[in-house]
Specification:
There is one protein chain. By secondary structure, the protein is mainly α. It has 2 domains: about 25-75; about 80-160. It is built from 4 helices and no strands. The protein has helices spanning about 25-55, 60-75, 80-110, 120-160.
């Protein structure tokens, strides 16, 4: 007779002709022990599942299973949270750069105010138009980057554990 090393130990009483039958009290105690083991195994499994999903282990089992089902049905995201965080940082840096450019443009506008000894009105109006156009472009780029940042925040929220 070969013994499988991976097999679980056999539960219950050994078989044989000479065994003494268990009393009703002994059977109840044995069955209570088996039930405790079964419940402990289920509890450990649910706790491990809750930890893997990232929620409280106090959650009722039906809610935990619903959450796992929802997570499994969600489409797999190609980008990780770290990648999205890095993209957010890059977008915030770009916004800061563009905001700095707007400040520089405001300074240029102030410097280009009419000075009779250096500039004539035509040159000033042309420079103002160019600067206003650049400022509008910069503001549009900032608005687009802020929209992208909001999208990234939504993605992070969707990927956050429940």
């Amino acid at each position: 007779m070969s013994v499988n090393a991976n097999a679980r130990p056999r539960r219950g009483r050994p078989s044989g002709k000479n065994r003494v039958p268990l009393t009703a009290e002994q059977r109840r105690a044995r069955n209570a022990l088996y039930e405790r083991e079964r419940r402990q195994g289920l509890g450990t499994g649910y706790s491990d599942l809750a930890e893997a999903v990232g929620c409280s282990s106090d959650l009722p089992s039906y809610e935990l299973l619903k959450m796992v089902e929802t997570i499994l049905k969600m489409p797999k995201q190609q980008e990780t949270v770290e990648e999205l965080t890095e993209q957010n940082r890059a977008l915030e840096d770009e916004i800061a750069t563009l905001e700095e450019q707007i400040k520089i443009n405001d300074i240029k506008d102030w410097l280009l105010q009419p000075r009779q000894d250096v500039l004539n009105e035509e040159t000033i109006s042309q420079a103002k138009k160019e600067l206003e156009e650049k400022q509008k472009q910069t503001e549009n780029e900032i608005a687009k980057l802020e929209d992208d940042r909001e999208i990234e925040k939504i993605k992070e929220w969707l990927l956050a554990p429940f």
